[in-house]
Design a protein that fits this description.
heterodimer; A: 121 residues; mainly beta; 13 strands; B: 263 residues; alpha+beta; Rossmann fold; Tumour Suppressor Smad4; 2 domains; six-stranded antiparallel β-sheet; Diacylglycerol_kinase_cat_dom (chain B); ATP-NAD_kinase_N (chain B)
Chain lengths: 121, 263
């Protein structure tokens, strides 16, 4: 997944809304606003540059361009853009980071992240 | 047996010509069985119940979105097929179903392509298209799991079963399908000069309006804000007060659609 090819979207959390609680989705999700609690999607996630997340995140793939305070559990590919600021632990099969992206937490990748599963409802 | 229920506003003489054309068309097509007219003296409920007692198998609302809402609320639990002949303004429901004008509606009813669609339920009533809320700040509790709070000062919050039209930036065909057992919550910020808007336009290096938020949900609860009851508009005409419980209804509607339907 990349920022550009993210088209088929199920949920858009725009910059003027805040979502609190236990959020679950089946499809791709774009977050440009605020979210706190837990977040799970069976497909892709795009976190925009202005997004503010205080939540544990689970997704198939993710592109992160904003702030995430919480653990990121990504089944396949996690991409962090230069503006990404992650304060939490990361688990992913593949991790791509642009220069300038920041992680404050532990990172498990490849075989060490084999137990990463999207939890079924 | 086809029953045509004319809304009361059609008694105005400016509709005489189109009514005559419709009646000629349904006669030619062999689908003119019974015509009944709403009036001050007879409520739509009496008319629909009477039609059902007399064996109506197809009930056609002749009028606008308001007519459709009134009739649908009375036939939801009944084993009938529903049709629409749109006349006048405010016919977004018919358009979404691919029914663009009164005479082509007659042909569509004759062709009788029937689809089963979801209905929304708000408290104990049904809605076919949308619920709209103009509010400064509001919290929606969704699916008993999460809350959506608006951060913008002015918002239009819409809950759709059908399409919102063509004025939105939502490209995904997954949205606004009346057969998917979901409602869509759309939050459109209406104030242009907010800090959020400024930051967003700086980050995006553009002056576009803030994008909408869209959620697919099955159940929504709207409570009073600061002990004050708020108003919502159901299917663009009926005003209801909070608190409201909104959900995808278990009951469905069999409806005649055109080839140009948007789902």
């Amino acid at each position: 997944m990349s920022k550009e090819n993210f088209k088929e979207v199920e949920t858009i959390i725009g910059p003027t809304v805040k979502v609190e609680g236990d959020f679950k989705a089946d499809g791709n999700v774009i977050i440009e606003g605020q979210i706190s609690g837990t977040f799970k999607t069976k497909k892709g996630l795009r976190v925009g540059e202005g997004a503010l997340i205080k939540a544990t995140i689970e997704a198939e793939n993710a592109w992160v361009g904003g702030q995430v305070e919480g653990n990121l559990i990504i089944k396949n590919h996690l991409e962090l853009s230069s503006n990404a600021r992650v304060k939490g632990d990361i688990e992913a099969q593949i991790l791509t980071m642009e220069t300038g992206a920041q992680i404050n937490g532990t990172v498990k990748m490849g075989e060490n992240a084999d137990n990463v599963k999207i939890i079924e409802e | 047996m086809y029953y045509y229920i004319y809304d009361q506003f059609l008694s105005h003489k400016k509709y005489d010509k189109i009514i005559a054309q419709i009646e000629g068309k349904i006669t030619d097509l062999g689908i003119k069985d019974r015509i009944i007219k709403m009036s001050i003296l007879k409520s739509v409920k009496e008319l629909v119940m009477d039609a059902l007692r007399k064996g109506a198998t197809t009930i056609v609302a002749v009028g606008n979105d308001q007519t459709v809402n009134k009739v649908v609320n009375l036939i939801v639990a009944e084993p009938v097929v529903f049709g629409i002949i749109p006349i006048g303004d405010n016919n977004s429901i018919a358009k979404f179903l691919g029914i663009n004008n009164p005479l082509s509606a007659c042909e569509i009813i004759s062709a009788r392509k029937v689809e089963t669609i979801n209905l929304g339920e708000v408290n104990s009533e049904y809605f076919i298209n949308s619920i709209k809320i103009h509010d400064h700040k509001l919290t929606l509790e969704c699916n008993d799991r999460f809350k959506i709070t608006t951060l913008s000062k002015k918002n239009l919050i819409s809950i759709y079963n059908f399409s919102p039209g063509t004025d939105m930036n939502l490209k995904s065909k997954k949205f606004f399908n009346p057969q998917d057992n979901f409602l869509e919550v759309v939050v459109e910020p209406k104030d242009e000069k907010t800090l959020n808007n400024f930051i967003y336009s700086l980050l995006k290096k553009e002056k576009n309006k803030l994008p909408e938020s869209v959620f697919r949900v099955k159940k929504i609860s709207i409570k009073n804000t600061e002990q004050k009851s708020g108003s919502v508009v159901v299917d663009d005409f009926k005003v209801m007060k909070t608190p409201l419980n909104i959900r995808v209804s278990d009951k469905k509607l069999k409806i005649i659609v055109g080839k140009e339907r948007h789902f």
